[in-house]
Design goal:
Length: 181
Amino acid sequence: MNQRELVRASRFLSRVLRHDPGRAGIRLDPQGWVGVDELLAGCRRSGTRLDRAALQEIVDTNDKKRFVLSADGDRVRARQGHSVDVDLGLEPRTPPALLHHGTVGRFLPAIATEGLRPMKRHDVHLSPDVETARAVGARRGTPVVLTVAAGRMHDDGHVFRMTGNGVWLVAAVPPEYLGEP
Ligand code: HQG
């Protein structure tokens, strides 16, 4: 598979493993896993070329390590970013004092009153470093990076989790914990 086909297959995987498994005629288990054989068959049926080697390559080389194979290699899932209901089984963890969220100016008035909400995803996604947050915000325009007082939130009882690729997840961030760096 060439690079373009790999990117296209990777986008398709994001869609079916996070948002719309029905598009490939597959079902995710409650933890978000699907059997590799079932996934590959579903991709074939829905017209996306993907074989075992290409899947492995996507898992290994995806820029954000969005996907992970089970230890035995029989199952695969997205690490985070789902809109379908899954329980990723991530343990609560103590976050660093500060985390960062990249967004754009047009959302700031709503964020100032409502705080950060997960919108279509399960959780608000936060980045440990400003650079990553800036890149996340830049997907939508000129990025604005907000600082989240994660340590203080944690002390106040908010539950944080971290995915295997370093993204921090929290249900919501009330406005009193937000600031600009
Ligand atoms: C904004 C990508 C109005 C929020 C990225 C964001 C990340 C509000 C958008 C990951 C709001 C939601 C997540 C409020 C939040 N009012 N707007 N109260 N609260 N927002 O895509 O953080 O490529 O769901 O600022 O790289 O942008 O998918 O979240 O702009 O890691 O692997 O509403 O998705 O990773 O957008 O991105 P998203 P996000 P992947």
